Amino acid sequence: MPPANFIEDFERTEHFDFLHAVIGRSLIVATRFDSMCTSLSIALEIKQGYIETIITDKCFDVLVNKTITKYRTLDTSIKSFKLPNEMSTILHDARKARNEIAHSLTKELEGCIDTNVNEDDFIYEVSRLVKTITDGDIVISSLMSVFNRDPILNESSLNKYSSHVLSWVVEK
What we know:
- This protein is mainly alpha-helical and 172 residues long.
- The chain has helices spanning 14-52, 57-69, 74-80, 85-103, 119-148, 155-170.
- It has one domain.
């Protein structure tokens, strides 16, 4: 028998696998949001650096390399956008929800979680977090569309997107 600080319960059930799939899909949504914020922050920094100076291809390569190798937190990326308070609040709320999924959601969920998780409560909490991240994802995706000069989705499409993401994460 292994020492108590090792996982001992490796039983898998259909319910167990469903809950772990929800955790995995919610982490995908959270990671995508983080990545989109970082990508836009880097793109804006590179564009600003390129516009501020007339640079050669070699200097541009150095600028790009310097920008993409800098360590940046999600908080730093969001602050770099210098957005109106309402949009900034949506992104920071999504950041907090992302952090909760990435760092807190699965604390004390080890072994077969069938017996120590109320599925309805768990799905409600994941849904709340994913909805908050999806609101931020809509903002950052729209900003990325503006940056890339791509069309922005209309309100109906954005609502369908939000519902689709949430369904994908939490429905059986």
